[in-house]
Amino acid sequence: MNIVILGTAYPFRGGLATFNERLARQFQQEGHKVETVTFTLQYPSFLFPGKTQYTNDAAPEDLHITRQLNSCNPFNWLRLGRQIRRQQPDILICCYWMAFFAPAYGLICRLAKKNGITKCIALVHNMFPHEKSILDKLFAPYFVKAQDAFVTLSDAVAEDIKSLYSELSTPNSKQQPQVAVSPHPIYDHYGERMSKAEACQSLGLDASKQYLLFFGLVRAYKGLDLLIDALEKVKDTQPNLQLLIAGEFYEDEDKYRQQIADNGLQERVIIRNEFVPDADLRKYFGAADLIVQPYKSATQSGVTQVAFHFEKPILVTNVGGLGEIVHHGKMGYAVAPDSQEIAEAIDDYFRHDRQAAFTAYLQKEKVKYGWDRMTKAFLQLTNQSHD
To answer: How many Å apart are CA 10 and CA 98, to the nearest integer?
Structure first.
């Protein structure tokens, strides 16, 4: 098939760009023709909380990526929509994660599928963002109604789509959206797992310590404050335990440092306030004994799938879709977003030395999350749409 993926990709950085590029590679490996259309302007600089939107990595030579979409220019959307209509791809995949992009995506899809050939299938990471906005009510419906079908990474997001669809339906409408749930595949391109000794040496860490890893962008909904409180609760029972925070802060770092100081944890917490490039992921996951995602709200997370790849036990909070794939007590823990429950799970893990058993379960479970399952979902929805 001829496929266009519309969303973030090189030279932009981050998990969504990584996802789209890996998805494009899978389609290519299966014999499809793929173009990824990414942004000339993704966010205006005043809306972006980080240091930079761009990666320092080299451009992927095996992918066809073009920069054509300006998120703020309706004339650009008209041009691009008409261009894709002329290209006549079999599938236009819009990678959606926030309502800011809904007007652009919605218009482009409406124009593209006027050719009578192209099917618009949305890849929805979040139907509604973690930090709610008035844009969700204003723009999201326009995007949703332009799609022929949807692929989500969790049941939670699928239910959000169905709920929104119901709100938009007229009393006499019986139409339901076509939604396929295909769990987040495993990121499998970060290299081989590093030994703890080698990883710690590379990062300048003491390999004799035990490490909790909080990985990724630091935002309020990710619950780092809960994890810091949990660490304080186990500091006496787990004297060898340290918390490693690796990721760029998208909010005030000082408030977390103050919380660390108030809990007397200055010697127990290591902060690396920087965006971690792909080449360094194996170091941080190699050093970690337990990956912790203490989110207060969530849909799903790529961090979980990186943990799967490196076969690292995981502690998540049972919000959104996180608990759907982390089987409690088998590969890790899925607990309430509560510092006491997080602390009890951490203590249980180290007190009973569960690493070997959890890792063995992970090794068996990870085979379920291949990228071919996701491409199959898109292709099946395309065939159903044609029917």
So the answer is: 19
Q: Please give the Cα distance from 380 to 387 (Å, whole number).
A: 11
Measured in degrees and rounded to the nearest 5, phi and psi for residue 214 equal -105, 115
- Looking at the chain, the number of H-run helices and the number of E-run strands are 14, 13
d(CA 265, CA 231): 8
Q: Please give the pLDDT value at position 23.
A: 97
Range scoring the smallest mean pLDDT among 105-109, 137-141, 285-289 = 137-141
Q: Is residue 58 classed as helix, strand or coil in its secondary structure?
A: coil
Task: Provide the b/e sequence for 183-221 (b: ≥16 CB within 10 Å).
Answer: bbbbbeebeeebebeebbeebebeeebbbbbbbbbbbee
Residue in 71, 60, 74, 87 with CA at minimum distance from that of residue 4: 87
Q: Is 381 exposed, middle or buried (0-12, 13-18, 19+ CB in 10 A)?
A: buried
145 vs 109: CA distance, rounded Å: 10
- Could you tell me the two tokens for 196? 């703890």
What digits encode the pLDDT tens for the residues 273-317? 998 888 899 999 999 999 999 999 866 678 988 999 999 999 999
pLDDT, tens digit, for every residue of 327-339?
999 999 999 999 9
What is the model's pTM?
0.77
